[in-house]
Amino acid sequence: QVQLVESGGGLVHTGGSLRLPCVASGRTLITYAMGWFRQAPGKEREFVAAISRSGANTGYADSVKGRFTISRDNVKNTVYLQMNSLNPEDTAIYSCAASAGNSYSVTQTARNAYDYWGQGTQVTVAS
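The structure assignment produced for this chain is given below.
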């Protein structure tokens, strides 16, 4: 079993940037395909970005493509979400998640593909 802890959230203005790390403990990160999801007030949790176990393959929601970048450092047991050109529609709680049982090249975009979740970190973008 793996434990996930996110950090790096906060308040930024439109056009600003944030980098969210998610640190894994309990098992080595390379065991899992990883993803980031977000949940805005009154809305369902939605997929943001995913990365394969090897880090070679990534996937993004259309709403963040070209602005957000997911990456991972399997030595540091950390996955990152770099968020640029933020706008108020990006305001949400951002959570990382781990998906077990995947080959090295697979990315997962569905919520129910993920087995473990972090508590989340709040990102607020002011206009």
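Interim note for the steering committee: The chain has no helices and eleven strands. The radius of gyration is 13 Å.
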